[in-house]
Specification:
The structure is a homodimer of 124-residue chains. Chain A has 124 residues and is an alpha+beta fold. Chain A is built from five helices and five strands, in the order αααββββαβα. Chain A has two domains: 69 residues, Winged helix-like DNA-binding domain superfamily/Winged helix DNA-binding domain (Arc Repressor Mutant, subunit A); 55 residues, 2-Layer Sandwich (Dna Ligase, domain 1), CATH 3.30.1490.190. In chain A, the strands form two sheets. The first copy, chain A, has a three-stranded mixed sheet, with no helix packed on it. A two-stranded antiparallel ribbon of chain A has the order 1-2.
Amino acid sequence: MTRQRAVVLEVIRSDMCHHTAEEIFHLARLRLPSISRATVYNNLRALEEERIIRRISGDGAADRYDNAYEPHGHIVCPECGAVKDFFMDGFAEALRRALGTEVDSYELKARVVCDRCKLHCVGS
Amino acid sequence: MTRQRAVVLEVIRSDMCHHTAEEIFHLARLRLPSISRATVYNNLRALEEERIIRRISGDGAADRYDNAYEPHGHIVCPECGAVKDFFMDGFAEALRRALGTEVDSYELKARVVCDRCKLHCVGS
DNA sequence: CCATAAATTTAGACAAATTCTAATATTTCT
DNA sequence: AGAAATATTAGAATTTGTCTAAATTTATGG
């Protein structure tokens, strides 16, 4: 666990947001100005492989990172890309049963325009 | 509905595969050699907005396109990116109930190593 | 403590996927 | 036909992410 990896992890855990790699890079530089973009990407990948964080694929835009590894659903705003967690009881089991096989992992993403964007959209 | 858009749609409907934009571009050129990559992308986006096809986000690799708009699950092989459809009875309704709101659309992706890749992986 | 090996970091080059631009061509409407 | 709107094209540009090679740090074993 190098200083750099610790900083990346701190940034991810510092708030409830699901940041992009680029955002994590900028936030990490506030704490460790010498850190490079490649190191951020390297550590994000390493942390994902160690099953400490999870990558949320970004539907065209940049991927985002979740401070929890446990799979769960995400509500994504199709306007601004903001992500919120959500949990659906018994879903993993239902999925396994529906497929009839073990599942490496899953991604469940519901697109719902967030309140902030809804306001903007109504006006325009 | 221009000739180009018709060709893009024909390609997508011509088989059960979930092709990438690049593959669609090459297949479309067999039918209409002058078609350009930008036109393929333009029409894929237009068709998606018209809710005629659906984009499946490609987890790092290129996105793929589904000839149906109706949301349903996808089984994605994390090794080779191959995509298969799957259906889970009552899922859309369960999702709406879990979220307590209407859902624009959803994406449900289960990562399962496909049979072909499983063979390769066992050997290596 | 030193030597060596192994892993990590860094900056920047590179690559893939997609979007943008500006000119041209086509379609649509009157 | 003429004007306005829309679509196409080729290639440039952008975004996101990976790769490379050199420098640095960390770990290991005498």
